[in-house]
Specification:
Blueprint (H helix, E strand, L loop, with lengths): L5 E4 L15 H26 L19 H35 L8 E4 H34 L7 H29 L2
Antiparallel strand pairs: 1-2
Helix pairs in contact: 1-2, 1-3, 2-3, 3-4
Length: 188
């Protein structure tokens, strides 16, 4: 392992300024952000799993020829479970990275620790992939919710497509921006 593969971690102020060195309190903050956002999305997944489309008190479920079939209901649950697993994976990786940094360099000790940059980047990348997959699966689950509420795609026309088009354009656009920022951060 050479110095190019390592970076310095300091819980305090800035380091000497050489490339690869610097306070990774930014990294700790980013890892906290990942776990916080994933927690909110995991809550959304649980709320989605708790929803019963056959509850008579919950109006607005599509009926008739355009009603969602059992396959769409199965996909709804499947995508919620995949989303939950992806967000949990991402959060656990982020928490492990944060804990590894704190184990190598406890915050109450004013020394600088050396952390393997390649492993840290791989962990950040794995956590980001988990978050992106979780968002993708959650988006697909929401598409199924729309089909259950408004009718199957291609059957009802404008109502279903009007609700689905923003989902399938805005969410992937945001995920592409997130991926670009992650790759930019990993190359710096």
């Amino acid at each position: 392992m050479n110095d190019d593969d390592l970076f310095r971690y300091s819980s305090g102020g800035p380091s000497s300024g050489r490339r690869g060195e610097g306070g990774t309190s930014i990294h700790i903050t980013a890892l906290d952000g990942i776990t916080n956002v994933n927690s909110l999305f995991t809550l959304a997944v649980f709320l989605g799993l708790a929803w019963n489309p056959y509850d008579p008190g919950d109006g607005g479920v599509s009926v008739g020829d355009c009603a969602a079939g059992p396959r769409i209901l199965e996909d709804l649950v499947t995508f919620h479970v995949f989303s939950f697993a992806s967000f949990l994976f991402s959060s656990l990786i982020a928490l492990c990275l944060k804990q590894a940094i704190r184990l190598v360099h406890p915050p109450f000790r004013p020394i600088v620790a050396r952390i393997n940059r390649a492993l840290f980047r791989a962990g950040i990348l794995a956590s980001a992939v988990g978050s992106v997959l979780g968002c993708g699966f959650l988006m697909m689950a929401l598409v199924n919710v729309v089909q259950i509420k408004l009718g199957r795609i291609g059957c009802t026309g404008a109502a279903t497509m009007g609700a689905i088009i923003p989902l399938v354009t805005l969410i992937p656009s945001a995920m592409l921006i997130y991926i670009a920022v992650i790759f930019y951060a990993l190359t710096r």
